Amino acid sequence: MEKCAIVTGSSSGLGLEISKTLLFNGYTVFGGSRSGTPIEHDNFYDVELDITSEESVTEFYETVKEFTDGVHILVNNAGFYEISPIGETSTESFENHLATNTLGPFLMLQGLEPFLVKGETHIISILSTAAQYGYPNVAGYSASKFGQLGLLQSLKKEWKDYKVRFTNLFPGAIDTPLWDKVGTRLARDKMLKTSDFISVFNYIVTAPTTIQFPEITFLHKEGFLE
């Protein structure tokens, strides 16, 4: 069977580089995003997707179904991130975190079940160290990522008979264009580079399928930033 992968949030940043890496490794990639992905490749399908919308997720999988019955890799990458003290965090912002970082993966995983390839499907989720450690001024983000982790831990047991591999990645801060938008006082030269992240991701994707990587935490050599 042709190897197929889905990447959410493929339009820029990590999602874009993840998509390129999977294409390089011979996967047919369905990139889901709201704004479109600047990749031109015979094995790349640019599909409109808003992971916070049940209707959009359903339509996305209907498109995937036109090309394949099996998905070998799902990368939960799309995310929402804002910085603010809890007293200045609006209800809308908190809800946006939950909608994108918790509800979105729930909808993607729910829709994935008919496409599972027993013993082969690999679910890789980009969680961040904020799913393990409550950083200040990002309550909405941490709450939503902790929620996503709980979802994945439950599903791993529920889908045990499918023999699905789950890999939860907990990278520290990564120097991407995201920081240009949200602003930060953190030293960007002490953040991981996108290439650092991709080196870890590529290792996981190309490792023998007999190996399981349940959880991987990795940081810049300077350690946690706060």
Explain what you see.
The protein is of the alpha/beta class and 226 residues long. The chain is built from 6 helices and 7 strands, in the order E-H-E-E-H-E-H-E-H-E-H-H-E. The protein has helices at residues 13-24, 54-65, 91-112, 139-158, 178-182, 194-206; strands spanning 4-8, 28-33, 44-48, 73-76, 122-126, 165-171, 215-218. Helix 1 (13-24) packs parallel to helix 6 (194-206), helix 2 runs parallel beside helix 3 and helix 3 (91-112) runs parallel beside helix 4 (139-158). The longest helix is centred in the middle third of the chain and has 22 residues, at 91-112.
Number of domains: 1
Could you say which overall geometry the principal axes of the C-alpha atoms support? globular
- State the distance separating the first and last CA atoms: 45 Å
Physical arrangement of strands within the biggest beta sheet: 3-2-1-4-5-6-7
What CATH first level would be assigned? Alpha Beta
Protein structure class = alpha/beta
Q: What's the CATH superfamily, by name?
A: NAD(P)-binding Rossmann-like Domain
Poorly predicted parts: none
Strand proportion, as a percent range, falls in: 15-25%
Instruction: Using the coordinates shown, work out and report the CATH topology.
Output: Rossmann fold
Number of strands: 7
**Most strands sheet:** 7 strands, parallel
- The ordered string of helix (H) and strand (E) elements is EHEEHEHEHEHHE
Please state the CA-atom Rg, rounded to the nearest Å.
Answer: 17 Å
Helix content: 25-40%
- Count the helices. How many? 6
Residue-averaged pLDDT, rounded?
93
The name of the CATH architecture is 3-Layer(aba) Sandwich
